[in-house]
Amino acid sequence: MLVGHSGAGKTTLVEQLLAATSTIQRPGRVEDGNTVSDFDEVEVRQQRSVNLAVAPLVHNGIKINLLDAPGYADFVGDLRAGLRAADAALFVVSAFEGVDGLTQMLWEECARVGMPRAVVITKIDHQRADFHEVLATCQEVFGDGVAPLYLPVITNGHVNGLIGLLTQKFYNYATGKRTEKDPGAEYEAQIDEHRGVLIEGIIQESEDESLMERYLEGEPIDTKVLVDDLEKAVARGSFHPVLCSGLGVGAHEVLELITQGFPSPLEHHMPEITDLSGKPVNGITCNPDGPLVAEVVKTTSDPYVGRISLVRVFSGTLRPDMTVHVSGHGLADRGHEDHDVDERIGTLTCPLGKQQRGAAKGVAGDIVAVAKLSRAETGDTLSEVEHPLLMTSWTMPEPLLPVAIRARSKADEDKLSQALGRLVAEDPTLRLENNAETRQLVLWCMGEAHTDVLLDRLAKRHGVEVERVDLRVPLRETFGGRCQAMGRNVKQTGGHGQYAICHLEVEPLPSGGGFEFVDKIVGGVVPRQFIPSVEKGVRAQMERGVVAGYPMVDVRVTLYDGKAHSVDSSDMAFQIAGQLALKEAASKVPTLLLEPVDELSVLVADDYVGSVMSDLSSRRGRVLGTEPVGTGRTLVKAEVPALEITRYAIDLRSMSHGTGTFHRAFLRYEPLPPNLASKMTATE
Fold first, then answer.
1. Is residue 54 within 8 Å of residue 86, measured between CB atoms?
2. Residue ranges of the Tr-type G domain (predicted)?
3. What are the per-10-residue average pLDDT scores of the chain (684 residues)?
4. DSSP readout, 553-590?
5. Residue 219 burial by CB count (10 A; 0-12/13-18/19+): exposed, middle or buried?
6. Helix H or strand E segment including 188
């Protein structure tokens, strides 16, 4: 899979690799909107990748599935799906932009899961390119085990070719075709310097302990031995070769690394597999004849074909017309209910961008597309009906940007629910919330770009027009003091009337105290059967609020006196009396508006800690403390009102240049400052 920040040249490199293997006639351009992997209308308009795309090719008889992942932080869900499906990651770094913080975070994420990695420095033909400076940056940022396999030969700003450090050959591209010759004497010192570092790095990872001693004694090491050890070191995730590419240069070398230096699917670490009861299942390997275990890594909806599931086959063989068991567990909080169903496999295809080329089968290690799996969603496991299995789902980032929307017309409202259901099935990073308190439909997204893409798909793909509305944060009400109040519900209507009088004492409870109802009736002034009626009426009024329409919390209500009538008193009469008493109490003592306060944990690079803490304080937050996390990062903990962080996902990304992450959790309710409370009350 190709990984890197937006604009690093991933999609352009895919085009070069496809053209080098004659998969396509000529490479397309992102600016022209004619690339294989950026085929979505949104990608063409925005000139950047927003989807995980597959581009298969064949080099030296070996099929390679290139996965082009979006480089923008909002679409990290597709990137993580790609990491699950990939056997190795090719980090793409621009020769004049270098390594940004997001790329460093992605590198560390791959390191945590042991993903084999290599680096391609692109755009070496750019006028501001500096290969050696960016190489040094990669070695500094990515750590040990980063060494170049090739060096570019640049004359007067033009890339003439590449020098292979293992083969000590000059691959000349000056004529437009790759020719091989010996490098000149002027490159000897440069080759010796970098070749020594490369060989020592490979040998250090070798299982043959005698190699280092032989090398230090001056004995030449066979290139094939070095290549074999290179592949083993890359597969372990401990060595990371660096290549380079430019316009018409480097594609062949990248293909050689992928086919000779990257691990095959047989060496792919198998994710944890269980049966449906959760019992671990061991012994499953990447074997076409083994039990079927496959996973849906991406789901899309085509207006003509319907739902298309991109599936990575980990074990067994997937064939058309076979019946499989579809299991989806663990994403109920994202709107994906647990499900176990049997479905029939339809047509299998190998997608090349928007083209769907027929496939006879999908064997272990391959990636295929399956049409019309009606219940399968992203992250689901496909297995044999007789032996259903479940793969542990990959970790999905939490969407933290709430966006309230409403349908633009009645016709749009009728179609909105179905359209949103399809989007949720496609995108596990999207969470849909129907907030019963605010009566708002809220999309929890990864960021502004993610939101724009979702709304664009609603309009263009599903024909549903929506508009954004101001997000309402659910507040609460409580009493600011103790008082006594009477609820009098006495009416004569000619027949049975209504007669209920209750005397209540109300007082606030500490934050989180909830609601207490205390019965202090003596002498039967309120008959026992009507005491629950008073409580029911009080609870109903608390739900509706007494000032701004927000539910009331943290209140103790004591019923201490009242009157009843032998004929006209009833359950409903005392419910109404309880409601009236609570309203009267609100007119006697101040009523406070309470706002939710969240516990915020912000993880940022050390360089941005001061800015983050200052920003949190400006949001009426209380910084509780900081603690170091790993090398160069700090976790900032704070308590911040939810009203102040509705757009924090965007603001933090701006402050930290895309490297900051945060987690929020509801903590408690606190009184809203009087100046803000008056504004809130005025708008109700």
1. no
2. 1-266
3. 90 94 92 90 86 94 94 87 92 92 84 90 91 94 91 84 91 86 84 86 81 80 85 87 92 93 87 90 92 93 79 95 87 69 92 89 95 86 94 86 94 90 86 89 94 92 92 92 94 80 95 92 92 96 89 95 90 95 93 94 93 96 93 92 94 89 93 83 58
4. -SEEEEEEEEEE-TTT--HHHHHHHHHHHHHHHHHHS-
5. exposed
6. helix 188-204
